[in-house]
Amino acid sequence: MEPTREQVRAAPKVLLHDHLDGGLRPATVLELAREVGHELPVGPDADAEALGTWFAEAADSGSLVRYLETFDHTVGVMQTAPAITRVARECVEDLAADGVVYAEVRYAPEQHVEQGLTLDEVVAAVQEGFDQGVAAAQANGTPIVVRQLLTAMRHQARSMEIAELAVAWRGRGVAGFDIAGAEAGFPPTRHLDAFEYLQRENSHFTIHAGEAFGLPSIWQAIQWCGADRLGHGVRIADDITVKDDGEVELGLLASYVRDKRIPLEMCPASNVQTGAATSIAEHPIGLLTRLRFRVTVNTDNRLMSRTSMTDEMTALVEAFGYGLPDLRWFTINAMKSAFLPFDERLAIIDGIVKPGYERLISG
Question: Which of 41, 124, 256, 269 is the most buried (most CB within 10 A)?
Answer without folding.
Answer: 269
